């Protein structure tokens, strides 16, 4: 029905404007072994609680975000631009 | 039929009589009536038939919880089924029809179900409809559907408008009774942004049915005064006729406003309903409490109603619920009704008070007969109440009455507080389930278990203060004047079961669940509240158990010998009351839901006689019939031949187009395509394959380099949006260090393919520069000047048809003129317009793939693109999973061509490929035909197929099997390129 996502660029916007890709994972190094790649592509945690995901503000600023939320309470902890997130999580 | 209308009093406007009809019978009411009160005033007690047993039913409540008086309102496309007569405002010309009866409400054949009741007990769905499975479709389902007992939806479409909107406020107050009004006023006076909503047409809630006075002012008048002050405040929005139906994440509340449902002919320029999404800093639930029915025999006979409802009918609507009343109560609130009945001159036989001690001393000063320590064991009557049996200290007494008002105590209306996971707990002190305040939402007044006007006014104001404080808004408490004549009803011990009942004692009136059903559920092992609910269907009707849930829990608790807290409640979910699909859809219907997307060349196609086909939102030109052509095949065959022999023009504007710029654009493309792009020279186009990270092909298209730092990518029509999302993800979340920018330019360019041996001659006429094979060879891509410098466009020498071909892109607004000019120039050359059908034949003949083949299960090698995949690049999306064992196996499905052995025979897309002589089973299927068409070039049906180890099976005879249609076509696998396998035509 409703509920809002705080886009760091556009402010609080209805969730219908967004699309979700899934867990916010760092892409492995090109030289990573097959198991690492397999884990990255196929294996996901399914936590009850804190979870960081890639969300796309498709019908807004078209930026990819990392949205951290609680899967049990739906509480939004943080939304950040994915490029910033990527730079800060870079090795 | 004599009128039950009282001679004076009420909030109705006697100067405004309104005529309406019920089951075709003309009746009259007044402005201010609900449909239910108007029916009662007309002596119409029988208002519907019950769901399972088709028992006669009358109105039980005066509000949103009504389970019995459900009617079909309106005509044609405005037909509204299952309307609660208690919530429907009366208007002139209203037509209401009863439901769930045949042939008429008075003579209903389904009432025989009452005699079959032993077979319709709890769990009857599970017991009766078990087997055989074949009975489902023909017998069980139609029976259940017919028995479902709800109104029949109109076949016509709804002529009215619906809309959605958003609103923001500091404090949202839900419910405009004493509590809500006090809260809204406190916040409004402090300057906070307030929204006050109420489901009723008139603001005031319980005050409207109250005879107490506040500082000498009658309660309804007092509500009017408060409303006037609120409406004068610019920071307060009051929404009557608005039901808050759900509480969602982010403190967003859903509400539906019935803007024009009380009008016979809604104004066309306004919506009939408006769906609100309200973002509240804080919310106050001032929704009041629901009175609980009592579970005695025949408690559903018309004439039995809730005491608070009887009070509303007498005080607010000036209608006598009956000629001779009795009141059955477990608490003091029943005496407020008794007092009001006496004041209105309605005759009263007795007050049956379940408490041995009766009412608080001095509370009741009237002269009615009080029977303390007594219960009503059974009510008697058919379509109307005629008598009750009272049991007291082992003695019984039968009393002739035609009206019985009951009060079993009050349950706070806490639904919304539970929508986000809030739990209820049983309070012995309140004799009710209470909700806790949650972050962003508090409860006050009767919704928090309080009773009494003065208490609620103060609670509303004080709770508002606390919520405003959390928002950092300063406000002050202003005391309300003294209340006189209010009967406060402290909670009493609930009365769950009444011994010795003879008749059916209903718990859930709407779903026809009675006490014996619940007993059966317990005996059969379904005593858990969630199981009992589903086994008996208690609380599962459209009223969601507003009157029945707590009684069912109480009875279960008693049967199990535990506290109601231990039984627990079922989960409250949105919606609080039914919401129309129209309101939920808003303006998203018809073309607003699915707009038409037209190519810039749409009008060009139209004037050339195109037949269009819907592809997603796009309308694509499918073929261009000419005089004398009677089938689409004739037109398509002609178009294909014309392209192969002369030339054709096809609209390809709907391909996705993405402009990619930045100094790292080439590096970026190298990482998103599996083949190399960094070395693509400026002025050249290249076919690219985009993989998913798991190695499978995602999309394909050509990308051209227009400058060192500027590329122009095309995608398939279907994946245009998806590819852009994907590229944005790669640029932002994977490689933000790359300097690359992406822009969708699909709508900015009109793009047309000019294909065929004469294409160059035609095109040269409008292109200023030399486009000879030497000057502009295959895969050339460049900006060109057109019409002697009048226009700039982009020209690509690429070919989907396998012929000498170009794609010309011009700014969208020029598309039609340029296409017209080319058609004119092409006329002497015999050029024709061709559509996507011919385009499809041309590409199948050439063995080019689309998403029929790129179906999410293929890797590049499966389509013969294995050598395209770069081995030099260290990284690209999909590289790392591509070498997995299963993706390089020799027996993978690979692209092949397939033809019928006998050219006179045919096969269809989707058919299976079987080895010659193999049995026709899915297990023995080698693959399937992914694309097929009639090929004018080959002279028969041809197909592309994905077949196990297909690349090594060219020449093999197979059986093409369509199991659905029982078709078997002997065929032969072959090279997938049927036309010009050496690709010489492209390069001339
Ligand atoms: Zn945004």
Your description of this structure?
The complex is a heterodimer of chains A (91) and B (988). Chain A is of the alpha+beta class and 91 residues long. The mean pLDDT of chain A is 93. Chain A has 2 helices and 6 strands. Chain A has a single domain, classed as 2-Layer Sandwich (Folate-binding fold), CATH 3.30.2270. Chain A has a 4-stranded antiparallel beta sheet. In chain B, strands 8, 9, 12, 13, 14, 15 and 28 form a 7-stranded mixed beta sheet that branches. Chain B is 21% helix and 28% strand. Chain B is an alpha+beta fold. Chain B has 7 domains: 154 residues, Ubiquitin-like (UB roll), CATH 3.10.20.440; 201 residues, FAD/NAD(P)-binding domain (3-Layer(bba) Sandwich); 97 residues, FAD/NAD(P)-binding domain (3-Layer(bba) Sandwich), CATH 3.50.50; 85 residues, Arc Repressor Mutant, subunit A, CATH 1.10.10; 151 residues, 2-Layer Sandwich (Gyrase A, domain 2), CATH 3.30.1360; 123 residues, Aminomethyltransferase beta-barrel domains (Alpha-Beta Plaits, 2-Layer Sandwich), CATH 3.30.70; 99 residues, Aminomethyltransferase beta-barrel domains (Elongation Factor Tu (Ef-tu), domain 3), CATH 2.40.30.110. The mean pLDDT of chain B is 95. Chains A and B meet through helix 1 and helix 2 of A and helix 18 of B. The complex binds zinc ion. The site of zinc ion (ZN) has 7 residues of chain A, from loops. Chain B: This is Sarcosine oxidase subunit alpha. Chain B: Keywords: Oxidoreductase. Chain B: Pfam families: FAD_oxidored (PF12831), Fer2_4 (PF13510), GCV_T (PF01571), GCV_T_C (PF08669), SO_alpha_A3 (PF17806). Chain B: One of its GO terms (biological process) is tetrahydrofolate metabolic process. Chain B: Belongs to the GcvT family.
């Amino acid at each position: 029905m409703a509920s809002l996502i705080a886009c760091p660029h556009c402010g609080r916007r209805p969730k219908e404007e967004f699309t979700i890709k899934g867990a916010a994972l760092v892409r492995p190094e090109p030289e990573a072994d097959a198991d690492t790649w397999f884990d990255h592509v196929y294996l996901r945690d399914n936590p009850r609680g804190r979870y960081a995901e890639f969300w796309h503000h498709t019908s807004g600023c078209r930026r990819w975000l990392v949205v951290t939320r609680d899967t049990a309470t739906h509480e939004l902890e943080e939304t950040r631009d994915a490029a910033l997130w990527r730079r800060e999580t870079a090795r | 039929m004599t009128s039950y209308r009282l001679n004076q009093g009420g909030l109705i406007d006697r100067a405004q009589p309104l005529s309406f009809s019920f089951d075709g019978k003309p009746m009259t009411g007044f402005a201010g009536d609900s449909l239910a009160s108007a029916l009662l005033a007309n002596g119409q007690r029988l208002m519907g038939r019950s769901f399972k047993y088709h028992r006669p039913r009358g109105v039980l409540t005066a509000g949103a919880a009504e389970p019995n008086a459900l009617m079909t309102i309106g005509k044609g496309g405005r037909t509204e089924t299952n309307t609660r007569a208690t919530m429907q405002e009366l208007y002139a010309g209203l037509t209401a029809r009863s439901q769930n009866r045949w042939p008429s409400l008075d003579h209903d054949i389904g009432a025989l179900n009452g005699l079959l009741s032993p077979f319709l007990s709890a769990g009857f769905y599970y017991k009766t409809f078990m087997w055989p499975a074949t009975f489902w479709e023909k017998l069980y389902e139609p029976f259940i559907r017919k028995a479902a007992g709800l109104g029949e939806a109109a076949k016509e479409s709804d002529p009215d408008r619906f809309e959605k909107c958003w609103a923001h406020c500091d404090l949202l107050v839900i419910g405009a009774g004493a509590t809500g009004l006090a809260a809204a006023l406190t916040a409004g006076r402090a300057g906070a942004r307030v929204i006050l909503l109420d489901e009723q047409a008139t603001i005031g809630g319980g005050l409207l049915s109250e005879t107490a006075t506040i500082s000498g002012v009658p309660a309804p008048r007092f509500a009017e005064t408060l409303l006037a002050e609120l409406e004068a405040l610019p920071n307060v929005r009051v929404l009557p006729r608005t039901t808050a139906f759900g509480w969602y994440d982010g403190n967003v509340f859903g509400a539906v406003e019935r803007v024009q449902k009380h009008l016979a002919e809604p104004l066309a320029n306004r919506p009939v309903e408006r769906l609100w999404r309200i973002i509240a800093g804080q919310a106050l639930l001032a929704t009041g409490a629901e009175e609980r029915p009592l579970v005695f025999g025949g408690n559903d006979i018309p004439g039995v109603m809730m005491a608070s409802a009887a009070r509303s009918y007498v005080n607010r609507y000036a209608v006598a619920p009956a000629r001779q009343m009795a009141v059955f109560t477990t608490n003091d609130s029943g005496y407020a009704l008794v007092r009001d009945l006496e004041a209105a001159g309605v005759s009263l036989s007795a007050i049956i008070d379940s408490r041995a001690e009766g009412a608080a001393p001095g509370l009741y000063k009237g002269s009615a007969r009080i029977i303390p320590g007594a219960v009503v064991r059974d009510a008697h009557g058919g379509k109307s109440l005629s008598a009750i049996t009272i049991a007291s200290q082992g003695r019984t007494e039968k009393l002739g009455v035609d009206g019985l008002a009951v009060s079993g105590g009050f349950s706070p209306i806490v639904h919304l507080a539970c929508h986000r996971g809030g739990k209820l707990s049983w309070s012995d002190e309140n004799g009710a389930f209470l909700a806790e305040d949650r972050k962003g939402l508090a409860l006050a007044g009767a919704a928090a278990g309080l009773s009494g006007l003065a208490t609620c006014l103060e609670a509303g104001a004080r709770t508002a203060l606390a919520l405003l404080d959390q928002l950092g808004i300063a406000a002050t408490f202003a005391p309300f004047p003294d209340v006189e004549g209010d009967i406060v009803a402290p909670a009493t011990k609930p009365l769950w079961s009444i011994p010795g009942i003879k008749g059916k004692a209903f718990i859930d009136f709407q779903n026809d669940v009675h006490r014996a059903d619940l007993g059966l559920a317990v005996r059969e092992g379904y005593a858990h509240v969630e199981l009992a609910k589903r086994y008996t269907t208690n609380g599962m009707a459209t009223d969601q158990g507003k009157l029945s849930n707590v009684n069912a829990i109480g009875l279960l608790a008693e049967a199990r010998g535990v506290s109601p807290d231990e039984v627990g409640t079922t989960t409250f979910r949105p919606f609080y009351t039914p919401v129309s699909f129209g309101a939920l859809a808003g303006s998203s219907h018809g073309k607003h839901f699915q707009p038409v997307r037209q190519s810039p060349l749409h009008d060009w196609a139209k004037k050339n006689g195109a037949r269009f086909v819907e592809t997603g939102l796009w309308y694509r030109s499918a073929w261009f019939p000419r005089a004398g052509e009677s089938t689409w095949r004739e037109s398509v065959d002609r178009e294909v031949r014309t392209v192969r022999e002369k030339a054709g023009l096809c609209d390809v504007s709907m391909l996705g187009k993405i402009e990619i710029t930045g100094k790292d654009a080439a590096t970026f493309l190298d990482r998103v395509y599996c083949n190399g792009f960094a070395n693509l020279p400026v002025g050249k186009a290249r076919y690219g394959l985009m993989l998913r990270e798991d190695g499978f092909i995602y999309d394909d298209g050509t990308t051209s380099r227009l400058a060192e730092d500027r590329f122009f990518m095309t995608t398939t029509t279907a994946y245009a949006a998806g590819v852009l999302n994907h590229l944005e993800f790669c640029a932002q979340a994977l490689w933000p260090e790359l300097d690359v920018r992406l822009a969708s330019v699909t709508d900015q360019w009109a793009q047309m393919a000019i294909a065929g041996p004469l294409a160059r001659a035609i095109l040269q006429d409008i292109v200023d520069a030399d486009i000879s094979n030497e000057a502009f060879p295959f895969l050339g891509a460049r900006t060109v000047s057109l019409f002697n410098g009048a226009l700039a466009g982009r020209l690509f020498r690429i070919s989907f048809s396998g012929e000498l071909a170009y794609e010309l892109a011009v700014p969208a607004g020029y598309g039609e003129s340029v296409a017209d000019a080319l058609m004119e120039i092409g006329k002497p050359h015999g050029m024709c317009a061709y559509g996507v059908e011919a385009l499809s034949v041309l590409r199948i003949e050439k063995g080019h793939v689309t998403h029929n083949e790129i179906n999410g299960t293929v890797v590049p090698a499966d389509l013969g693109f294995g050598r395209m995949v770069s081995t030099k690049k260290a990284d690209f999306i999909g590289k790392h999973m591509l070498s997995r064992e299963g993706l390089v196996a020799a027996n993978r499905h690979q692209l092949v061509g397939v033809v019928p052995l006998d050219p006179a025979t045919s096969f269809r897309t989707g058919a299976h490929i079987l080895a010659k002589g193999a049995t026709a089973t899915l297990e023995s299927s080698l693959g399937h035909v992914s694309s097929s068409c009639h090929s004018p070039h080959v002279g028969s049906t041809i197909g592309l197929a994905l077949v196990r180890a297909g690349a090594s099976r060219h020449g093999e005879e197979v059986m093409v099997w369509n199991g659905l249609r029982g078709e078997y076509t002997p065929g032969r696998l072959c090279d997938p390129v049927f036309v010009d396998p050496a690709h010489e035509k492209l390069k001339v």
